[in-house]
Amino acid sequence: MSLFDLINPFSYITPIHADDEPVESESAAVVASDVVEAEVEVIESVEASNADSESSDEEEEQEEEEEEEEEEEEEEEEEDPVDPKEAIVEACSETMSCKSLKHHYEECAARVENGSQESCAEEFLHFMHCVDHCAAEKIFAKLK
User: What pLDDT is stored for residue 140 in this prediction?
Assistant: First the structure.
């Protein structure tokens, strides 16, 4: 008897030919009972390892929940950083160099509201170019 015969659960089955009648031998019954016992042992060991893994899974879940709660508390304590760009752009739009361009843009916008067919794109672009030019240096100076 080889090792394969002990491991193979179908080793007790003998091939059946059309002319032969099925015959089971006594050794096949012994091998089959050995296989069943081995399967029972494997099932018991798997069940034991599953029980161990379930308890470790529960512990891991508890640890993950605690870590998530700590992270949430830290996030609540941290304040969102304020974007300085808005304040800088507003200040730059009031500078002497950009104030005249802003005035031209506002005059154009007032004419359009009164029914003029012109576009204020040129005035707006000149004004925004001035503001961007002024704000760029200040914004990049505040970057870390």
Answer: 87
